[in-house]
């Protein structure tokens, strides 16, 4: 007699489990890796991504590419997440982290196919990570912060290494100085939002400039603006959040009057309120008035007559940075305007940059903020330059906070690979093979650097293995000479924290993918209520 069939999941629910499911997840992750594989390193290629609105983005940044790809496969999404976390935490190494996670899975795949239990694999992967982190911390070279010149040159080298794989690598000397200056201006906490990046089309990259203070684009202005002075020495700045415009009260309230005289009184009252505000601002001694809210035509003309400069509708982030640089306070009333709440700076001027006019505030008393004005040809080019500078700024911030560096160019990965290989020979059981597989996976970074530059990867990796076996721990790929080199001597340096973070995130992602052995896709039935979120199971039939 046949057993009755038990229907547990709602119709249309896909369920796949076991080994084939795990293999399929690993294959999906491989496809993601292939999307960013060729962007690694100084000879990496760029990707052109066109979104639904036909907006084209050209980028070399792993996290940016993965965000724009809009990946839907649940297992492959873990790789997108680690790229995002690497970007948020350290700012650079987004492509490396995805490559490492993908290669860990690729080297482990044969063991999964042969039936090794995923938990045993995960244990070996975690053990390898602990060994790698302790070895990286042991190898990392601490920086001496006492000598300011040496420390500065080191920061510039780290910034230049971060930019070497970007679109602006030809100008990396010029930009690494600018980035280090920008970061060193900040206070101890190194807040990222205190470095403003403004993009102005036109001109060459070398025309970009760093302003030790605040600069922002001229805001919307009314007639009378042209007559205002455009330059002040020792100026006082009023920062307001007040609308200096005639507000017709009839919009806000209903007023009933029965003759013209009464109506005139209302109109006069409105004008008087505005004029009293303007008079108080003038009496405070402020030369420059900035407001987050609009400044109308009457006010603009009033200030012009009294040789004062004003700008309304200033973006909030620019107002905050001006406040940070020039001191003072953002006021919502004009009644307490005095010297203690006014900002100060040595020089205010409005200058033409390309097709835009910019307001500059320089020589601020506590300038803990800076602005980089980027010049360049097309919009996409400027956006990619901004992304490259963001990576470099993050790297310099990290190096100041965690003052330990290692050699880049695949050197540290080769050393960790050698260390894991040696360690695996002293272990019994399956772990020996698994740790050996992780050791092989670490070689993907130098291998990919060679592949992207068109070198013979096998030949260069053989040379590297020989050098590392002889105890030269900083040997890595030298892209400019198509050979190997001591990357510590040639100043290809990266903060150790970047590598530690990348290895940790890649291991976590690999373990996460390995620990999933079943996927249940619950498709919403036509007209039926959605299945309870989270469990993935529908209601029993």
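-> sequence recovered:
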């Amino acid at each position: 007699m046949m057993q009755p069939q038990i229907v547990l999941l709602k119709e249309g629910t896909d369920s796949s489990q076991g080994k084939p499911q795990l293999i399929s997840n690993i294959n999906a992750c491989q496809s993601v890796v292939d999307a960013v594989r060729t962007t690694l390193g100084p000879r990496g290629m760029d990707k052109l991504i066109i979104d639904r609105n036909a907006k084209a983005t050209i980028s070399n940044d792993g996290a940016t590419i993965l965000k724009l790809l809009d990946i839907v496969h649940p297992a492959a999404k873990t790789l997108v997440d680690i790229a995002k976390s690497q970007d948020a935490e350290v700012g650079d190494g987004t492509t490396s982290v995805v490559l490492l996670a993908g290669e860990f899975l690729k080297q482990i795949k044969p063991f999964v196919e042969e039936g090794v239990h995923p938990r045993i694999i995960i244990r070996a992967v975690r053990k390898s990570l602990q060994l790698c982190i302790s070895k990286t911390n042991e190898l990392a070279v601490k920086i001496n912060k006492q000598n300011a010149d040496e420390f500065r040159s080191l920061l510039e080298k780290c910034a230049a290494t971060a930019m070497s794989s970007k679109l602006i690598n030809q100008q990396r000397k010029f930009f690494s100085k600018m980035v280090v200056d920008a970061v060193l201006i900040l206070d101890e906490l190194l807040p990222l939002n205190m470095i403003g990046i403004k993009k102005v089309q036109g001109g060459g990259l070398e025309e970009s400039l760093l302003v030790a203070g605040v600069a922002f684009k001229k805001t919307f202005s009314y007639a009378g603006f042209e007559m205002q002075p455009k330059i002040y020495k020792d100026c006082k700045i009023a920062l307001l959040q007040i609308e200096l415009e005639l507000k017709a009260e009839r919009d806000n309230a209903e007023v009933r009057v029965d003759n013209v005289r009464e109506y005139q009184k209302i109109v006069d009252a409105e004008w008087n309120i505005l004029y009293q505000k303007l008079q108080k601002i003038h009496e405070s001694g402020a030369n420059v008035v900035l407001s987050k809210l609009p400044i109308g035509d009457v006010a603009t003309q009033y200030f012009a007559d009294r040789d004062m400069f004003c700008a309304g509708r200033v973006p909030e982030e620019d107002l905050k940075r001006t406040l940070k640089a020039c001191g003072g306070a953002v006021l919502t009333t004009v009644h307490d305007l005095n010297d203690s709440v006014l900002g100060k700076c040595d020089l205010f001027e409005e200058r033409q940059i390309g097709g835009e006019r910019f307001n500059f505030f320089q020589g601020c008393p506590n300038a803990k903020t800076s602005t980089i004005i980027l010049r360049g040809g097309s919009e996409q080019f400027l956006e990619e330059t901004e992304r490259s500078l963001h990576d470099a700024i993050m790297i310099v911030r990290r190096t100041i906070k965690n003052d330990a560096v290692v050699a880049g160019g695949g050197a540290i990965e080769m050393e960790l690979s050698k260390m894991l290989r040696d360690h695996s020979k002293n272990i019994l059981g399956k772990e020996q093979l698994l740790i050996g597989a992780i050791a092989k996976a670490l070689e993907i970074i130098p291998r990919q650097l060679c592949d992207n530059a068109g070198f013979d990867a096998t030949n260069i990796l053989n040379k590297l293995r020989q050098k590392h076996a002889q105890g030269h721990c900083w040997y890595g790929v030298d892209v400019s000479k198509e050979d190997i080199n001591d990357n510590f001597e040639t100043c290809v340096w990266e903060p150790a924290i970047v590598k530690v973070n990348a290895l940790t995130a890649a291991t976590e992602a690999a373990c996460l993918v390995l620990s999933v052995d079943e996927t249940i896709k619950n498709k919403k039935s036509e007209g039926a209520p959605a299945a309870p979120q989270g469990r993935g199971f529908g209601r029993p039939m």
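Residues 260-283 form the longest helix (24 residues).
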